[in-house]
User: Which sequence fits this backbone?
């Protein structure tokens, strides 16, 4: 295998592929026709993600469909009667976060989230990948991540404090999204401040809005 193309191509590699997959790739190499004659069922994979389609065009070219997946610098595998691989050939797009819901939702943000109880949030964006993303809200890991699609995941967050917490999605085997300040926790009401894990009335001469 000498080259793969189909997403954004540079030299012999392709990158910025959509995690949903399902776009055509062109694989270039040699002896593909001879190897295919010796194999009952040729297969193509990107890392551990297997393609649903592979077509031997001629001795030097193969058409294949990009499988859904995630990660950067993944190995391209061709399976005939033996395994052939080319390392660091294909990279999927980085995740992007557009919005969150789960508490009091205002446009793409959510506010007044609990200070003490666990709660579920849904994160919306693109290129999260099919599985196994990691989510950070501020410095807190969000637990039990579920993928509903490549642009919708949920997770369970512990109660906490703070305003405009950034949300990060770390793609499995891939990049981390840019942090977007979308989530805020419930604050003490006017005239109270947070001291020793509780909201207490402000001292005379002080005021908190």
Assistant:
């Amino acid at each position: 295998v000498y080259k793969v193309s189909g997403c954004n191509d540079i030299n012999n590699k392709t990158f910025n592929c959509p995690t949903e997959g399902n776009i055509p790739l062109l694989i270039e190499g040699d002896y593909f026709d001879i190897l295919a004659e010796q194999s009952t069922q040729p297969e193509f994979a990107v890392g551990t993600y297997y393609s649903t389609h592979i077509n031997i065009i001629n001795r030097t070219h193969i058409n294949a469909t990009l499988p859904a997946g995630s990660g950067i610098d993944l190995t391209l595998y061709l399976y005939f009667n033996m395994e052939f691989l080319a390392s660091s050939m294909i990279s999927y797009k980085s995740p992007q976060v557009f919005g969150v819901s789960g508490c009091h939702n205002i446009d793409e943000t959510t506010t007044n989230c609990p200070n003490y109880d666990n709660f579920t949030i849904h994160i919306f964006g693109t290129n999260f990948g099919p599985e196994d993303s990691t989510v950070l809200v501020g410095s807190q890991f969000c637990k039990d991540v579920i993928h509903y699609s490549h642009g919708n995941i949920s997770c369970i967050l512990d109660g906490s404090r703070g305003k405009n917490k950034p949300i990060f999605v770390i793609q499995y085997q891939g990049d981390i999204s840019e942090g977007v300040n979308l989530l805020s926790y419930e604050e003490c009401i006017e005239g109270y401040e947070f001291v020793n894990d509780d909201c207490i009335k402000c001292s005379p001469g002080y005021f908190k809005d």
